[in-house]
Write a structure and sequence with these properties.
The structure holds two protein chains of two kinds. In chain A, 72% of the residues lie in helices and 1% in strands. Chain A is mainly α. Chain A has a domain of 214 residues. In chain A, helix 7 runs parallel beside helix 13, helix 12 packs across helix 16 and helix 13 packs antiparallel against helix 14. Chain B has one domain: Glutaredoxin, CATH 3.40.30.10. A four-stranded mixed beta sheet of chain B has the order 2-1-3-4. In chain B, helix 1 links the parallel strand 1 and strand 2. In chain B, helix 1 packs across helix 3. Chain B is globular. The chains are: A mainly alpha, B alpha+beta. At the A-B interface, helix 3, helix 5, strand 1 and helix 10 of A face helix 2 and strand 4 of B. Strand 1 of chain A pairs parallel with strand 4 of chain B.
């Protein structure tokens, strides 16, 4: 398998690159200033301009809303830009070339790591799957990549930082990667190759196709591209964030405290599997699910249960399974769902016990 | 004639790429055929693992992202020169 990454090209540094970095630096300074004035601004808007009393419920909710929305949108834009910049160095071809030489175990670990950092469009899962299998990468490693990539979403990660802090976000990152790694490893051991649709093995690469893949990107191009993908992602999710926060604020105000302790709390042992089962067919944009998750947490649901629910919503979904059905036979899809659900359930229990 | 192929199973991003390609063709005032390639076997024949992919005269110019109209214009211009 010839690849275009035999040599890591040194990116030349030109004046245009320098200018682009200057723009990034300027944007970073503005970002920091903005980030620091949000809170005083939200307070001024609520208690100064709108003149709401400080102890009123409405005033507190509004101040919270005016603070949270710009804070999360700023965090999203800033961090998605940084993540996108890192992603300009990674693509499916490179990941495949790196994973190709590894056996099971290390291969699963690498596939999980790259799955976590690679941007994922569910419409790419079939080409990815075929591409990996064609390169002779073991099924288990391929599935690890296919599990981790949607499970770890950069939008979810940033929103978790914004709403729950670094610890929960890191927990999500580490547990998601581990779930992908272990589920893929187990699926690999189960020898399920015969449940892959036969046509996958019969595809012949076309001859005479030229690859003009731009691997020698300049910094200017990388920065431009990251800015573009940031704009793309933020423009897709900002509305979810605002609506989600508004709903969250509503739940916050109107649902009694501890209303969910009985059904989603630590003591309800069945809550983890039930949440995961409910989450399997559901699909939601991570941006839509996290504010709701945050509201559930505030009402007595436990962290493990809520994270397990979130993961099953974003990792397993009916549309995704329908797409995968093109390359996987129903038996393999069933095992795939089963193993991942069990892994997510175990993770949920672990968090409930540990935290 | 110039042939532009958009590789992808028909997701939103693939449709965007197709729209951009059609718009650039009109803006440049050239004659080109835009073909949507949705069959996975056909997509994989190009060894493209991240869709949407863009192929101009059997040359893969972009994968896994939505190129800008300016980029498509550049690729089409150079495709016309070599043709």
């Amino acid at each position: 398998m010839q690849t275009e990454l035999t040599k890591q090209e040194k990116t030349p540094f030109s004046n245009a690159d320098l200018r682009s970095w200057a723009v990034v630096a300027l944007a970073a300074i503005i970002w920091v200033i903005l980030y620091n004035v949000i809170e005083p601004f939200a307070n001024w808007l609520t208690y100064g301009l709108l003149d709401l009393p400080k102890d009123s419920h409405l005033g507190q909710s509004l101040a919270f809303f005016f603070y949270d929305v710009p804070k999360l949108l700023l965090l999203l834009s800033g961090m998605i830009f940084v993540i996108s910049l890192v992603q300009t160095f990674i693509n499916a071809q490179k990941v495949r070339a790196m994973v190709e030489k590894r056996g099971e175990g290390v291969g699963n670990l690498m596939a999980a790591f790259f799955g976590a950092v690679t941007p994922f469009c569910s419409c790419s899962s079939v080409p990815l799957f075929i591409g990996f299998v064609q390169a002779g990468i073991p099924l288990g490693i391929t599935l690890t990549f296919l599990i981790t990539s949607p499970l770890i979403s950069e939008v979810a990660f940033v929103l978790l930082i914004g709403m729950f802090g670094w610890k929960v976000a890191l927990l999500y990152l580490i547990s998601g990667t581990t779930i992908g790694m272990i589920s893929g490893f187990i699926l690999g051991r189960m020898k399920l190759e015969r449940y892959v649709e036969g046509f996958v093995y019969d595809i012949k690469p076309r001859t005479g196709v030229q690859m003009a893949l731009e691997e020698k990107l300049t910094w200017e191009e990388r920065i431009k591209r990251s800015a573009e993908s940031t704009r793309e992602i933020v423009s897709k999710v900002w509305l979810y964030v605002i609506v989600g926060i508004a709903i969250g604020a509503g739940i916050h105000g109107f649902v009694p405290e501890n209303a969910l302790t009985g059904i989603m709390g630590k003591d309800a042992w069945w809550s983890v599997p039930v949440s995961v089962l409910i989450g399997i067919p559901l699909y939601s944009n991570p941006a839509g699910i996290i504010p709701i998750v945050s509201a559930l947490l505030g009402k007595g649901a436990s962290l493990g249960t809520v994270l397990a629910f979130m993961m099953s919503v974003i990792a397993l979904s009916l549309p995704e399974m329908i797409i995968l059905r093109r390359v996987l036979k129903p038996q393999l899809i069933a095992v795939f769902i089963g193993v991942i659900s069990v892994a997510i359930i175990i993770t949920g229990y672990l968090f409930n016990i540990v935290i | 004639m110039t042939t532009i192929k958009v590789l992808g199973s028909g997701c939103a991003n693939c449709k965007r790429v197709e729209q951009i390609a059609r718009k650039v063709i009109i803006d440049m005032g050239i004659e080109a055929e835009v073909i949507k390639v949705t069959d996975y076997a056909e997509i994989m024949a190009y060894n493209v693992m991240s869709t949407p992919g863009l192929v101009i005269n059997e040359k893969i110019v972009s994968t896994g992202r939505i190129p800008t109209p300016a980029e498509v214009t550049t690729w089409l211009t150079s495709a016309l020169e070599t043709a």
